[in-house]
Write a structure and sequence with these properties.
- The protein is α/β, with parallel strands linked by helices and about 425 residues long.
- Strands 1, 4, 5, 6, 8, 9, 10, 11 and 12 form a 9-stranded mixed β-sheet that branches. It has a 6-stranded mixed β-sheet with strand order 18-21-24-27-31-30. Strands 14-19-22-25-28 form a 5-stranded parallel β-sheet, with no helix packed on it.
- β15 and β16 form a beta hairpin.
- It is globular and about 70 Å long.
- Homotetramer.
- GO terms for molecular function: glucose-1-phosphate adenylyltransferase activity.
- It comes from Tropicimonas omnivorans.
- It catalyses: alpha-D-glucose 1-phosphate + ATP + H(+) = ADP-alpha-D-glucose + diphosphate.
- It holds the Pfam family NTP_transferase.
């Protein structure tokens, strides 16, 4: 097969920007970058962008890391080490390593790519797909690549269709009737409507497709511009909107649905409330995000653990879970669990209860603890008898209570609570 007859994805690479902390997740990202945060019972957030690329046929990938990257790097080494260089496939981890300067780390999203130009050149690719590593969605990038080539655009920007009144929180596109971008506005007070529907606005997903030779030249010029913030959204994309051809791609045209009438699912789980809700939504009878779809699986690192175990069958001491997801390695000992999601190796004890709570790996829930509307960080041990979720004012004295009433519990918070007793 000649290069011209290969699928576009075979001539492309995915460059995943995964260096951000995600400060709106508060203490949940004290030990890990946002893309490394756990999601959905088994996976990490970054697995969605990587799985989309793999399922789309892209087998050359790179992940740029920066903030507290060890957890993310370890996860990728353990869960994504199946690529074989002899088959011309790669997944490279690119920590900020001052490759172009002895003083500069990654100065922005565009700079994260600029500092790795020599490495990308070695991949011998024609197109590059720039991805954010911190969103939950399923998308076929081959569709977007084909649209990019067919339109003759210099850049194609992946876009969500959002209600106009909500669009002020995004970078948004004004487009013509052919979806050519006429202006790019960062969090405008009065977002533009779409042609034919003034109630909707196109918002950037942080997904960009370029021909590599073009982007390479743009990055070299941008890196030498002292007035640039070296960012795709602030510098590269606006420049192409003004002096090139920038095209919008609607997510609804390439999203992967588990049923024809299913909604186009995309979530930014960047706050405690959004993270909690997206996880709890998976306990619905028919969740909008289908993690059971074998046609578009979400790949991840899977520990070898025994099945979940439920023990005790006495009044008020019955190990059971209702409308919940429970991962392998969990032992539910005499605990009532409702509408909750438990990750790998969680242990719970008799007479405890969990309701609408997200429990990250290896947490321990001791006897008679009652937890409602909580996010419990990995490795946390909940003291016996601790009650959370019934008195927000009392909870806020020692734990993080979100605007939506969700309580985040970390090890340091539990330690402070214990010292105060």
């Amino acid at each position: 097969m000649t290069p011209s007859t290969q699928r576009l994805s075979a001539r492309s690479m995915a460059f995943v920007l995964a260096g951000g902390r995600g400060s709106r997740l508060k203490e949940l990202t004290d030990r890990r970058a946002k893309p490394a945060v756990y999601f959905g019972g088994k996976t990490r957030i970054v697995d969605f962008a990587l799985s989309n690329a793999l399922n789309s046929g892209i087998r050359k990938m790179a992940i740029a890391t920066q903030y507290k990257a060890h957890s993310l790097i370890r996860h990728c080494q353990r869960g994504w080490s199946f690529f074989r260089a002899e088959r011309n496939e790669y997944l490279d981890i690119l920590p900020a390593s001052q490759q172009m300067s002895e003083t500069d780390w990654y100065r922005g999203t565009a700079d994260a790519v600029s500092q790795n130009i020599a490495i990308i050149d070695s991949y011998d690719i024609e197109y590059i797909v720039i991805l954010a590593g911190d969103h939950i969605y399923k998308m076929d990038y081959e569709v977007m690549l084909q649209e990019h080539v067919d339109s003759g655009a210099d850049v194609t920007v992946g876009c969500l269709t959002v209600p106009r009144e909500e669009a002020s929180a995004f970078g948004v596109m004004a487009v013509d009737e052919n979806l050519r971008i006429t202006s790019f506005l960062e969090k405008p007070k009065d977002p533009p409507g779409m042609p034919g529907d003034d109630t909707q606005t196109l918002a950037s997903m942080g997904i960009y497709v370029f021909k590599w030779s073009l982007l390479r030249d743009l990055l070299v010029g941008d890196s030498e511009d002292s007035n640039s913030s070296h960012d795709f959204g602030n510098d590269i994309i606006p420049e192409l909107v003004k002096n090139g051809k920038a095209q919008a791609h609607r997510f609804t045209d390439s999203c992967v649905r588990h049923a024809e009438d299913a909604p186009a699912y995309w979530r930014d789980v960047g706050t405690i409330d959004a993270f909690w809700k997206a996880n709890i939504d998976l306990t619905n009878f028919t969740p909008d995000l289908d993690l059971w779809d074998k046609n578009w699986p979400i790949w991840t690192y899977s520990e070898i653990v025994p099945p979940a175990k439920f023990i005790h069958d006495e009044e008020d001491r019955r190990g059971h879970a209702i409308s919940s997801l429970v991962a392998g390695g969990c032992i539910i000992s005499g605990t009532e669990i409702r509408e909750s999601l438990l990750f790998t190796k969680v242990r719970t004890s008799s007479y405890a209860s969990l309701e609408r709570s997200v429990v990250l790996p290896r947490a321990i829930i001791n006897r008679k603890a009652r937890l409602k509307n909580c996010v419990i960080d990995s490795g946390v041990e909940i003291p016996a008898g601790l009650v959370i979720g019934e008195d927000p004012e009392a909870d806020a004295k020692h734990f993080r209570v979100s605007d939506g009433g969700v309580t985040l519990i970390t090890k340091s918070m539990v330690d402070a609570w214990s010292r105060a007793q």
